[in-house]
Amino acid sequence: MSTPIPIYLVNATDLTKQHSESQVWAAATGFKAEPNTICLVPGPAGTLAKVLVGKPDLVDTWTLGTLSQILPAQSYYLADDWSTAVATKLWLGWRLGEYRFSLYKPLNATPLATLLPPARADEAYVNQTVAATTLVRDLVTTPAGDMGPDQLEAATQALADAHAANLAIIRGEALLEQGYPLVHAVGRAAGQSPRLLDLTWGQPSAPKVTLVGKGVCFDTGGLDIKPAASMKLMKKDMGGAAVVLGLAAMIMGLQLPIRLRVLIPAVENGIAGNAVHPLDVLPSRRGLTIEVGNTDAEGRLILADALWEAINEKPEPALVLDFATLTGAARVALGTELPACFSNHPQTVAALMACGLQVDDPLWQLPLYQPYRALLDSKVADLSNISDSAYGGAITAALFLQEFTRPDIPWVHIDLMAWNVRTLPGRPEGGEAMAMRAVFELIQQRFA
Is the confidence at residue 12, as pLDDT, over 70? Predict the structure, then answer.
């Protein structure tokens, strides 16, 4: 086995004072210790002596995110002395950058560069986070033909089995019998039956945290069919479900002292003779009637039934969060890389945003602006699933979901892309576990 090669993070001052023997080589190769640049310093007999990496003003999770793919495929170690927090971030970013989706296409046989666990790094956290992120990325990136409700159920069952969790499933017509009419309505036109996946884990006496994930395994738009350009990426419309499964894997794998519940309404929004029509009026688990102003606003319908179940569990949960690839309006407002969050509890959402910044997994709060609730009024039902206005779509969607929550139970709604539209350090193009680490940090700080 070859001797591991040291990696040093340097700025211009460090290069002058601590690596003066490498200055001539650095100058010859044009290395100025700027962020996102590297310098391979040769040793005797054609060996690689060390790697210099331009150090940014703020060293974060993504500082080393590209190195596993671009350095020679050897073993490396961090030669600088880092705190536990920074060492953990650096190793996590490196490891997340190793990800490659290989289900259908053989990978290039060239091995990747590897980084030895840095001193002080939290190995358990990094290993669990990498495994959870890989699960999310794989689930979201897998095409809908191989990731329908059946396969999403199988992935949930595998996770439950791995952690001795319980999984209850309500499928097909049983959804009507057990009071989930919106989940049934959205998914009834698809080849695979709609279902509610209900995973529980942990001691019943521990604080209860419930996660709800939108599991629309493919979204045609229903009878209000999407144009081809908008439909192309709809395999990712179960990204909310994938993220809650990844988050559950972290919580169970790291043994947080909570009682966890995960609710995933898993459906395909298909087109058939029994599909929901525009302006149909549907009942809900809460008892409110919903006029379907647009069949392509289906995610909020299935979430409504699941949220009402989550909120009304006895004893009550201490915190409820839902994750959903819900609106294009949130992407217009914040772009694809910054999830929007809404909450009925200011302290909780403020803490969540602080956690996101702490772990380099940011979110941004949008308001539950109550005057817009009138935009969801219907003349024939208790409310409509859409507003007739072209504006404020992320807010009105969140206000719709708020109708299925309670003000006395902290609730956070996260509207996310779940997809990297460009490759960034540690984050390749494709499915992504957005907001997962931020919420884990919130739960850990609040309950552990």
Answer: yes
Q: Distance between CA 366 and CA 35 in Å, rounded? A: 32
Residue recorded with tokens 């709800």: 212
Determine what percent of the chain is predicted with pLDDT higher than 70. Answer: 99
Average pLDDT in the chain: 97
Nearest to 447 by CA among 260, 258, 229, 266: 258
DSSP lists the bridge partners of residue 260 as 201, 209
Q: Check whether the bond before 207 is cis (ω within 30° of 0).
A: no
Catalytic residues: 226, 300
Q: What is the mean pLDDT of residues 160-174?
A: 98
Do 229 and 141 share a structural domain?
Answer: yes
Burial 129-152 (b: 16+ CB within 10 A, else e): bbebbbbbbbbbbbebeebbbbbb
Q: Do 366 and 264 lie in a common domain?
A: yes
pLDDT band at 105 (very low <50, low <70, confident <90, very high): confident
> Which CATH number fits the domain that encloses residue 60?
3.40.220.10
* Rounded Cα distance, 372 and 375, in Å: 5
Same domain, 107 and 190: no
Say yes or no: 336 and 394 in one domain.
yes
| Boundary residue ending a domain (58, 93, 121) | 121
Look-up of token digits 């009682």 = 259
| pTM, two decimal places | 0.97
Residues 11 and 62 in one domain: yes
Q: What's the confidence (pLDDT) of residue 88?
A: 98
Choose the final residue of a domain: 92, 121, 150. Answer: 121
Same domain, 45 and 178: no
Please, are residues 32 and 13 in contact by the beta-carbon 8 Å criterion? no
Find the domain containing 89 and state its range: 5-121
**Using an 8 Å Cβ cutoff, are 223 and 271 in contact?**
yes
Cβ atoms of residues 238 and 266 within 8 Å: yes
Same domain, 101 and 143: no
- Tokens 């700027």 correspond to what residue? 34
For 144-219, list the strands marked E by DSSP.
166-171, 195-201, 208-213, 215-219
Structurally, how many domains does the chain consist of? 2
